[in-house]
Amino acid sequence: MGVIISNILAIYRKELQGYFASPLAYIVAGAFWFLAGLFFLTALQSESDRALDIYFQGQQIGAPVPPVDVAYNTLQSFLGAMFFLSLFILPILSMGLYSEERKRGTLELLATSPVTNWAVAVGKLLGVLTFFITMVVPLLAYEAIAFNASSPPLPPAVPLLGHAALILVAAAILSLGMFISSLTESTILAAILTFVLILCFSLIELLAKLTGGVLGEAWNHLSLVKHYNTLVQGVVDTSSLIMFASYIILGVFLTAQSIDALRYQRS
After folding, report:
1. Torsion angle, CA of 137/36/170/140, rounded to 10 degrees?
2. Which residue of 73, 75, 216, 264 has the fewest CB atoms within a 10 Å radius of its CB?
């Protein structure tokens, strides 16, 4: 077990150093922060305007004004936008995990090395996920500043759970993207296929509504959007956590099997 953990940490450090030394990673992070800031300002302005409209309408007709939680509604809108932004950003982060190894001809060396394919896959996944977390953490800073004076105050657990949901859905997408990256040496093709696959998983909720019945419930349970929204709303649902863990393990398992197949071909 100690050897496996040591191998995972070695792969993890190598991947993380690669991301922080890559100009493309900084471009992706810059675009992510710019768009995230834009989405946050738009959500904050939109929810503030809506609250003012409700207030003035109530004043005009002399009716009691219903309470509006601008901070909570802004957070919901913002995290919803961040989910769809992640659909474009995460395939770019995962596309080179194995495709670059194939292109450089080092994948065969990796496949035939003493390090187990599981350890390599877990190390690579942890590396890219850590880089994504470093992109998400700054978002909490300006959210804390904006929501600091909100009334009623926003419970800290709500934004923390919402961002944990963003990281979980990212881990699921990156894990599946890593598997697709192991199938091709084209990084562009890996990114496109990952985007299409994740879009299908995200739109399953629509298919569930069209199908209905038991089959519709089954489709709905596989929806990334449904489980993401559950956690973002501040509800800790065990089935959602299990579903995200299942996607992550499935991606790692398929990646390890893909590299195992390459190892047998070479032997």
Report:
1. 20
2. 264
User: How far is Cα of residue 113 from the mean position of the Cα atoms in its chain?
Assistant: 30
Contact in structure between 39 and 33 (CB atoms under 8 Å): no
Entry pTM: 0.88
CB of 16 closer than 8 Å to CB of 127: yes
Residue at 74: amino acid letter: T
The residues near 156 (Cβ < 8 Å, ≥ 6 apart) are none
Q: Predicted confidence band at 266 (pLDDT cuts at 50, 70, 90)? A: low
Cβ distance 217 to 208 under 8 Å?
A: yes
